[in-house]
Design brief:
Layout (H helix, E strand, L loop, with lengths): L8 E8 L6 E9 L2 E6 L2 E5 L5 E2 L8 E5 L3 E5 L2 H10 L4 H10 L2 H33 L2 H16 L4 E2 L4 H11 L5 E2 L2 E2 L1 E6 L7 E3 L4 E5 H6 L3 H16 L2 H20 L8 H10 L5 H17 L5 H20 L3 H13 L6 H9 L2
Parallel strand pairs: 11-13
Antiparallel strand pairs: 1-2, 1-7, 2-3, 3-4, 5-6, 6-7, 8-11, 9-10, 12-13
Helix pairs in contact: 3-8, 7-10, 7-11, 11-13
Cofactor: Zn(2+)
Organism: Marinobacter azerbaijanicus
Family: Belongs to the peptidase M48 family.
Length: 356
């Protein structure tokens, strides 16, 4: 049976003087408001204010920081907790330790963390992306557009094989719609791309890319004008910059959660992130569709032209997917889906058909 007074705390551990890396077996005692460290030849008398008690983390070793860079290490967490209570220090640490060991609170924290993370990705990131995109100067959109076009031209886009006469005819039909929108001048360019196929894309700087396959798929120039109005809608609502910012914010959140900054230097991550910004959400597509409908109606163009080319596009892609079974073709299909700025859906087509 111990003969120590009830208020005395005795803790065994190791003492590091701070002058070198050697350690000594030591005993720390506290009684009557005085803390005494006995480490053989080294003996210290301290007040409770001289001792900084590290927080408790499970049952890992505990550290008491002493004057002169000295450290007392011990595995007697209960003894340290008693010392902290006696010296009226560490109440917050004790509460934290209790919370860490409360299963119910741990489960609640896990649920809250998952819900918060999900809300951040589903609602927080899109909202922040729109706010940031609308606040960015037009010069940023121009730089991003030029960089993206350069990347595409160096990878999947080739010079257009359309005749000069065909291009001039289309540009003549497009000309009334090529005005400045949301601070960006609208500029249409034509490119050939077997990899992407029939498609159109809107870059953040107002550059609209029409592929040769899409032009050849049209039976009436008004169908391409309808596609043009839709793509201009993306520029008007700054969807390109919003997509870019959203991709960056999502990537940053993942990096912050995983702590892996090396991914930023990996081209296999950066390039897809840039290209994915060209693929818009359903809400963005609805906004662009609304813009297109209004534009077509104001210019006396029947919205059925948009529905017609979209239906033809659906049929063309369905036939191609049914006939392509090789691994390389599957990869091109994935790329086309990634770059698609107007995913074909029956709901959207029906909206244009029913428009008066």
């Amino acid at each position: 049976m111990s003969t120590s007074p009830p208020s005395e705390v005795t803790i065994e551990g190791q003492f590091y003087s701070g002058r070198n890396s050697s350690r000594q077996s030591a005993v720390l005692r506290s009684a009557g408001g005085v803390i005494i460290l006995d480490a053989g030849e080294a003996r210290m008398q301290l007040s409770p204010g001289d001792v900084e008690i590290a927080p408790r983390i499970g049952n890992t070793p505990r550290y008491l920081h002493l004057p002169g860079d000295g450290v007392f290490e011990t595995e007697d967490n209960n003894g340290v907790d008693q010392l902290a209570r006696q010296s009226r220090h560490g109440r917050g640490n004790r509460l934290l330790h209790q919370l860490e060991n409360h299963l119910g609170l741990i489960l609640v924290a896990v649920v809250i963390t998952i819900a918060t993370t999900g809300a951040a990705f589903v609602w927080g990131v899109p909202w922040a992306a729109r706010a940031v995109a609308n606040a960015l100067p037009d010069s940023v959109a121009e730089q991003v557009g030029e960089s993206t076009l350069s990347t595409l031209d160096g990878t999947w886009l080739e010079p257009s094989r359309l005749s000069e006469q065909r291009q001039r005819a289309l540009m003549a039909d497009f000309q009334p719609f090529l005005t400045t929108v949301s601070g960006q001048s609208i500029n249409v360019i034509f490119r050939s791309s077997p990899a992407i196929g029939a498609n159109a894309m809107a870059l953040p700087d107002g550059t609209l890319i029409f592929t040769d396959d899409l032009v050849n798929l049209a039976r009436d120039n008004k169908e391409l004008t309808a596609i043009l109005a839709h793509e201009i809608g993306h520029v008007a609502h700054r969807h390109g910059m919003t997509g870019m910012v959203q991709s960056s914010l999502t990537f940053w959140l993942i990096v912050m959660m995983t702590g892996d900054l090396s991914a930023f230097s990996d081209a296999t991550v950066v390039v897809p992130a840039v290209l994915m910004s060209l693929s818009y959400s359903r809400d963005m597509e609805r906004e662009a569709d609304t813009y297109a409908l209004k534009t077509l109606e104001e210019n006396g163009i029947d919205p059925i032209h948009f529905a017609n080319i979209m239906e033809r596009l659906m049929t063309s892609r369905s036939n191609r997917e049914a006939s392509e079974t090789e691994e390389g073709s599957s990869r091109w299909d994935a790329l086309r889906d990634m770059l698609s700025s107007h995913p074909e859906t029956g709901e959207r087509i029906e909206r244009f058909k029913q428009s008066p």
